[in-house]
Amino acid sequence: MEITEGVRFDSLGLSQEILRAIEKRKLTMTTPVQAGCIPPMMEWRDVIAKAPTGTGKTFAYGIPIIEHVDTEDESVQAVILSPTRELALQITDELRDLGEFKPGVRSVCLYGGQPIGRQIDMLKKRPQIVVATPGRLADHMKRRTVRVDTAKTVVLDEADRMLDMGFIHDVTRLLDRMNKRKNLGMFSATISREVMDIAWVYQRDAEEITVREDEQNKPDIKQFRMDVAQNEKADAIAKILKVTGFDRAMVFCNTKGSTERICKFLQLRGVEAECIHGDIPQKKREEVMNRFKEGKLPVFVSTDVAARGIDVDDVDVVFNCDVPDENQDYVHRIGRTGRARKEGVAVTLVADYPSKMRADDIALRTHNEIVPVKFDGDGRLVVIGQE
Fold first, then answer.
1. Which DSSP symbol is given to 2?
2. What is the pTM of this model?
3. Residue 216 pLDDT > 60, yes or no?
4. Same-domain status, 264 and 190
């Protein structure tokens, strides 16, 4: 079933507690994926949803989960699997917002990189909702610090990404253990062969929801490409930020080393920037991400690890400091801007011929127009050929 429009939240038969939480977020209309998924999940039906990044998938399954939680029951009632710790933390935050006016709803976030002892202490508080990365959840199950066989709802968020990352065996083992579930929700930007295999084995008569990336749902992102020498990328980013006045930017790099270098170079040019990548301790990563989310950090530099895990509605511009290796990574990177119906800007910096070929291939295969630009004599961006 293809869904193109949202509906009013108050038309879905939701509880007053949930409606109050939604009203606090100043929302009245659902997104299309929420309109398609909330009713069948409220009826305990399996759902497989294909929808672009940034279309409100967390609320699409989070609202039915919070509605279904029996606060008198201290067993695990819902399990949400996420490919990355950043996304897991984001999901947990949104679930806590949704459950603000329903006392007794407890959730826990389990992920690698945080001391397992602290997570064991949180599990002793008997949460009904477990949000987890597959590897860390498997660790807890081996230690017998959590029981998930009581779960009634299981959700795989960013299912394509999770299976692409090699978690398929962890995911299937976990699903086999959660055999008392009433419904399984699978949410994905793309429906890969692996996603279809999981659906075929573990779902029954699933409601299939598709939200096309049409003009209504597709982010409004102006995309540019700039040819610039490798050692001048930080200068170009700093110059664009100064000329445009953009004060909220994400910069993506392909490697940890590149992330560190571009962050230091930006700092040397007076740009307030911080970076995260896999070698930075989790506590520090969370501090940097929270500063950016709260608007206290203008420029956030990262590897692709955070491309799906940070949910901010008002990023002015995304810089691809390196052209990504995968087409989907390009889509997810630039999808951090142009959200909540706002116009966004993405600038890809190209330093050599192979990078130019990759950028051209991305434009062709993702059906995006990436316009070549350069600086004019006054330091403003101008489209090449229209000077």
1. B
2. 0.67
3. no
4. no
Q: How far is CA 69 from CA 29, 96, 148, 244, in A?
A: 23, 13, 15, 47
**Which residues, listed in sequence order, are joined to residue 222 by a DSSP beta bridge?**
345
**Tens-digit pLDDT profile for residues 67-89:** 999 999 999 999 999 998 888 99
At which residue do the structure tokens 């520090």 appear? 284
Residues 133 and 84 occupy one common structural domain: yes
Domain span including residue 188: 9-210
d(CA 180, CA 182): 7
Whether residues 203 and 290 fall in one domain: no
Residue closest to 98 by CA, chosen among 55, 130, 67 = 67
The count of domains in the chain is 2
Does residue 157 sit in the same domain as residue 260? no
**Paired tokens of 319:** 């810089």
Domain finish residue from 210, 233, 264: 210
CA distance 372 to 103: 54
Q: Which residue has the tokens 């295969």?
A: 365
The residue-averaged pLDDT of 44-50 equals 95
Same domain as 296, residue 175? no
In the prediction, which pLDDT does 213 show? 62
First CA to last CA across the chain, in angstroms?
47
Amino acid at 310: I
Token pair of 113 as six digits:
């990189």
